[in-house]
Design a protein that fits this description.
By secondary structure, the chain is α/β, with parallel strands linked by helices. The chain is 42% helix and 14% strand. Among the domains are: 29-58; 59-170, 3-Layer(aba) Sandwich (Glutaredoxin), CATH 3.40.30.10. Strands 1-3-2-4-5 form a five-stranded mixed beta sheet. Pfam families: Phosducin.
């Protein structure tokens, strides 16, 4: 036992210690380099997407002439927020104010509006009974509807942030906040997810066809 205790401790040469630390430094440097390379690639890809979105009219809240133009943009844009409105309806103007703000914030989706009187086929196809109605499209499929102000407790003074949160429920826009809780919602919310009542095929642009 004493012999074991008296055995000299094995010392690691200083050069070997230095080599080990150098290896760790190189490993960290390689990791950082790989992360930086990956980040640059992601930034380039995002920049490419933004350029494509801008080319397709994303970033602005635009008015479509009719449902034919709606089908045209649906061939170019995967995600669409489309407001169906009436000229004489004051509630539609409330949505306009919020959607114009959000269009500039969320380039990933196409924000637009179309007069329901110029969209008889879509009105019938999507079974719209109440105006305003916002149709939310994800990956070229009708995902959700916001019908009137029911989702906001029928209050007219909801914030842009609350509408943004509601749009995000469909996945149509990218949202960084908490999807389970509306932001700054002082009044009780009656937001309910709606089952999709109808879909559309972006290649089906025959406005003369029936359901």
């Amino acid at each position: 036992m004493e012999e074991i205790l008296e055995e000299p401790l094995v010392e690691v040469p200083e050069k070997q210690i230095g080599e080990r630390f150098e290896h760790l430094d190189n490993l960290n440097a390689d990791n950082v380099k790989a992360m930086r390379k990956r980040r640059i690639k992601e930034m380039k890809e995002m920049n490419r997407k933004k350029q494509k979105w801008m080319k397709n009219g994303h970033g602005t809240y635009s008015e479509l002439a009719d449902e034919k133009e709606f089908f045209e943009i649906s061939k170019k844009s995967l995600d669409i927020v489309c407001h169906f409105y009436e000229d004489a309806n004051e509630l539609c103007r409330i949505f306009d104010v919020h959607l114009e703000i959000l269009a500039g914030k969320h380039l990933e989706a196409k924000f637009c509006k179309v007069n329901v009187e110029n969209s008889p086929f879509l009105k019938r196809r999507l079974r719209m009974k109440v105006i305003p109605t916002i149709v939310l499209i994800k990956n070229r499929k009708t995902k959700d509807f916001i019908v009137g102000f029911t989702d906001f407790g029928n209050y007219h003074d909801f914030s842009t942030d609350v509408l943004e949160w509601r749009l995000a429920q469909s996945g149509t826009i990218d949202y960084k906040g908490d999807l389970t809780t509306p932001p700054n919602m002082e009044r009780k919310s009656f937001i309910k997810r709606k089952a999709v009542r109808g879909g559309y095929d972006p290649d089906d642009s025959d406005t003369d066809s029936d359901d």
